[in-house]
Amino acid sequence: MNKRSSWALPYFIFLVLFVVMPLVLIVLYAFQDASGHFTLANFTKFFTDGDALSTFALSIEVALENTLLCIAIGYPAAYILADRRLNRSAVTVVLFILPMWVNALMRTLATAELFNMAGITLGKGTLLFGMCYDYLPFMIYPIYNVLNKMDKSYAEAAEDLGAKPWEVFAKVTLPLSMPGVVSGIMMVFMPTVSTFAISEFLTNNKIKLFGTIIQENINNSMWNYGAVLSLIMLVIIAITTVLQGSDSREAAEGGAI
Predict the structure, then answer these.
(1) N or C: fewer beta carbons within 10 Å in the chain?
(2) Is 94 within a domain?
(3) Does 20 fall in a domain?
């Protein structure tokens, strides 16, 4: 127990029990039928199920719209927070953190109640509003961290060479902040695709996302088909994570353009 590696044992046990084993079970159930025999019918069912494919396409559409909305709002906010000339108080940064201290489900329920009190019909608009409200901090902080740690001498050098403010932003600040943007996209896009609680409460279950059909299959004890849907989502997450890693390294190595 005097070795440093011994202190990692509890974390290793936790990792095996609550990360590795659930993933293994998902893979096993995905390739089995109700009797426990090997089959690919679950995958065939997904690719031939019109409702599941349309729900998946809708989830991608909503996730893209929410991600773009978060970028449009989050990047200017992160830029203002990181710019000492525009923001000199650390309190402003804390104000963006405060909503994250409240449980996401409670925030969603409160948002739905506000819409009901205002007589606003729940639908795609309220869904995007709620998702943007919930996930916006996850877009702001990766960008803010990159901008805050950015070497200001690059922008100063560009200004000394005669670059206009918009040129400094387009050719120096924006390229150097791309790792933060990519991280923010990952933290917003994938949870949006797989969420189900927000769409249920903010649309009265009128709009179903991919996470909703996973939940419904699991709740109805359709473990095998639910496992296939979960596995497809995991594969998408894995691919985007790998792409994010390579893009982040290229952006970090490339520097300013």
Answers:
(1) N
(2) yes
(3) no
In this structure, is residue 36 part of a structural domain?
no
Q: Which residue from 74, 68, 197 is spatially nearest to 130, judged by alpha carbons?
A: 197
Cα 183 versus chain centre, distance? 9
Per-residue pLDDT tens digits for 187-246: 899 888 888 889 989 998 889 899 889 988 988 989 999 999 999 988 888 887 777 665
pTM of the model: 0.83
The whole-number pLDDT of residue 126 equals: 94
Whether 41 is covered by a domain: the verdict is: no
Q: Report the number of distinct structural domains present in the chain.
A: 1
Gap between the Cα atoms of 107 and 135, Å rounded: 11
The CATH number for 240's domain is: 1.10.3720.10
Question: What is the C-alpha separation between 77 and 66, in angstroms, rounded?
Answer: 16
